[in-house]
Specification:
The chain is an all-alpha fold. The protein is built from five helices and no strands. The chain has one domain. It is elongated and about 45 Å long.
């Protein structure tokens, strides 16, 4: 309950995304600074690896490049959605 109140305070102060679209945009904006490569570069890496399944892409990016689940899932999702 305390964590939910802290998150609500951050949202109200504009320091935390308040919905999925805002969170996705925040992650996309932070991808390069947090991982060293932008979305297009990450997509190219996955395409060159010939890994295709969503879960396998996530595991590949986590294992080979040290991405967190969130960033690996974001890249896999963007690949799936084109």
């Amino acid at each position: 309950m305390v964590q939910k109140l802290k998150n609500l305070e951050l949202i109200m102060e504009g320091r935390m995304p308040s919905n999925v679209d805002e969170m996705t945009n925040t992650m996309l904006n932070n991808l390069e600074s947090k991982t060293g490569k932008n979305l297009d570069q990450r997509i190219k890496i996955v395409e060159e690896s010939q890994v295709r399944k969503h879960k396998v892409i996530i595991n590949y990016l986590k294992t080979e490049y040290g991405l967190t689940y969130g960033y690996a899932n974001l890249v896999a999702f963007k690949i799936a959605r084109g």
